[in-house]
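Thread amino acids onto this structure.
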């Protein structure tokens, strides 16, 4: 969680009053501070690259807005992409294909062909995918995603590295996968695993690195393969609660790089952070439109619901919330902050002590940069909202609000229903 400047009881983001942004652009809006994105990227890149050659593949599923991708392209980041849509967005944002690694799951032949066509390297998830890729191409550089049997994460829905999940080549088949790749004339250059999301301790990353190192050693001794890279995936957590500590990047980098450089001849370490880079750079601003006192509690009704930020409803995630135009007023009443979606589970925050609210107040929901806009939907026929970038006192619109026409554009009414 970032600390925000306060002037005259107003929250300031990127040098601008949050309430002024809400007024200018309308709400709900996601507001991203460009300097914060650059700072986060540099922090993680520098912690690792001081120790060994490093490539950061930004997991753009967290936020694939073209302006955000441009910022990271300028910083020198590379990309972890999971769909042809993400690949296309990154190419349009100026990433060359060699800066993109595609890690899909249950990938169709159609998608494989599109990736080959665009010269994007594929991190293979299954033996089926390998054989199907061989029908399309050979001689290509590839890597493998293994299931490391090391899983971690803040919620069972986001633990990916455990043995029971659908992801990766099973640990007991991974050496065979490389042998088969060579038989098929591929050039396997990397080894990858991803443990899960929102991991706050260093230990699971050290554990998965141990597994990757031991596989890399076997690849060297049994098949004579010297890897170009070992990719430890993403999943580095960020503090969502005010009293949580951030990840100790220096310790993380020490634990990971010392294992790789002492145990293997792999040249590079690769990481795929999404949340760490973009999570705390963005607030969601939403206006209080309705206040309701019930026998049990106060509801603050706002104009963003789980169509805009699904994490609280879907994972029970905590996002800190403040009143942007009453930033330093003391808490007076406890509210549930709820949206316009017709479901009881539609909440952004529960039981929050806030200054007494009035209609028109602007609520800032923190740490909304990762899996905020990218998981938003048009449920209840509500258009997706605007995104705004701020930097040192100026602001730019980086995504226009959708219109009702946008929502209806793809629907078709068969002519027989028109009579
Ligand atoms: N690499 C792979 C293979 C992944 O599957 C993911 C995330 C990442 C990297 C990036 O993880 P990060 O560093 O952002 O934690 N929607 C959930 C998170 C799901 C993450 C899915 N995979 C949420 O809102 O918390």
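Threaded sequence (419 positions):
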């Amino acid at each position: 969680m970032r600390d925000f400047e306060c002037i005259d009881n107003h929250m300031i983001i990127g040098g601008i009053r949050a309430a002024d942004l809400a007024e200018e652009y309308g709400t709900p809006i996601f507001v991203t501070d460009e300097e914060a994105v650059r700072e986060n990227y540099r922090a993680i890149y520098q912690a690792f690259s001081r120790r060994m050659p490093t490539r950061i593949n930004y997991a753009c599923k967290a936020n694939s807005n073209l302006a955000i991708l441009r910022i990271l392209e300028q910083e020198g980041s590379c990309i972890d992409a999971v769909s042809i849509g993400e690949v296309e967005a990154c190419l349009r944002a100026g990433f060359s294909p060699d800066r993109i690694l595609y890690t899909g799951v249950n990938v169709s032949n159609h998608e494989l062909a599109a990736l080959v066509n665009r010269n994007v390297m594929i991190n293979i998830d299954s033996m089926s995918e390998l054989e199907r890729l061989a029908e399309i191409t050979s001689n290509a550089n590839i890597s493998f995603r293994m299931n490391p049997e090391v899983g971690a994460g803040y919620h069972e829905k986001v633990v990916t590295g455990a043995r029971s999940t659908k992801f990766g080549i099973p640990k007991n088949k991974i050496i065979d996968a490389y042998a088969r790749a060579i038989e098929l004339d591929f050039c396997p250059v990397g080894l990858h695993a991803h443990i899960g999301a929102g991991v706050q301790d260093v230990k699971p990353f050290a554990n998965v690195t141990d597994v990757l190192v031991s596989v890399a050693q076997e690849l060297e001794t049994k098949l004579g393969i010297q890897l170009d890279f070992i990719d430890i995936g993403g999943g580095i957590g960020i503090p969502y609660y005010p009293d949580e500590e951030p990840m100790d990047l220096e310790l993380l980098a020490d634990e990971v790089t010392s294992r790789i450089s002492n145990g293997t001849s792999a040249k590079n370490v690769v990481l795929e952070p999404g949340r760490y880079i973009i999570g705390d750079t963005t607030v969601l601003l939403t206006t209080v439109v309705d206040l309701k006192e019930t026998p049990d509690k106060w509801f603050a009704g706002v104009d963003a619901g789980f169509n805009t930020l699904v994490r609280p409803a879907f994972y029970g995630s905590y996002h800190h919330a403040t009143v942007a135009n009453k930033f330093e007023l003391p808490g007076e009443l406890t509210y549930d902050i709820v949206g316009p979606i017709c479901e009881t589970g539609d909440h952004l925050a529960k039981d929050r002590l806030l200054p007494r609210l009035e209609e028109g107040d602007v609520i800032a929901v923190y740490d909304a940069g990762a899996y905020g806009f990218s998981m938003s939907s048009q449920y209840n026929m509500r258009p997706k909202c605007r995104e705004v970038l701020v930097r040192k006192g100026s602001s730019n619109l980086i995504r226009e609000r959708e219109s009702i026409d946008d929502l209806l554009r793809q629907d078709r009414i068969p002519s027989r229903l028109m009579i």
